[in-house]
């Protein structure tokens, strides 16, 4: 009878351990599902941010192009005056060399 009680005790311990493992398994599965959902959310957020970056990069290119094309008349006139001044200085230098 003692062996039978010992066997019953072993079975009870085994059943308790199996229940603990099943509970831990369920907890791990829930945690895993939660983490997978978070990963999915973060992936969607990353894709949204990548799209935003691409849109902003396109906007930067457009703004740079627009800025290059929008040279005002004042800029052109100032540049022309500066070139004319430099040409006069070069002419003076040439005249000094010819003397």
Q: Would you write up a description of this structure?
A:
It is a single chain. The chain is mainly alpha-helical and 99 residues long. It has one domain (2-71). It is built from two helices and no strands.
End-to-end separation in angstroms reads 134 Å
Helix percentage = over 70%
**Mean pLDDT score:** 89
Q: Please write the string of helix (H) and strand (E) elements.
A: HH
List the total number of helices. Answer: 2
Shape label: rod-shaped
Largest sheet: none
Task: Return the domain count.
Answer: 1
Tell me the structural class: mainly alpha
Q: What is the number of beta strands? A: 0
Record the SSE blueprint.
Layout: H1 2-69, H2 73-98
Salient structural properties:
99 residues; single chain; 2 helices; mainly alpha
What is shown here, in short?
Helix content is 95%, strand content 0%.
């Amino acid at each position: 009878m003692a062996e039978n009680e010992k066997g019953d005790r072993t079975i009870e311990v085994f059943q308790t351990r199996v229940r603990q493992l099943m509970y831990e398994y369920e907890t791990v599965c829930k945690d895993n599902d939660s983490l997978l959902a978070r990963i999915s959310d973060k992936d969607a957020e990353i894709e949204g941010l990548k799209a935003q970056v691409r849109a902003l990069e396109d906007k930067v290119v457009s703004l740079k192009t627009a800025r290059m094309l929008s040279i005002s008349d004042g800029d052109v006139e100032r540049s022309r005056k500066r070139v004319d001044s430099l040409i006069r200085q070069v002419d003076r230098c040439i005249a000094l060399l010819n003397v």
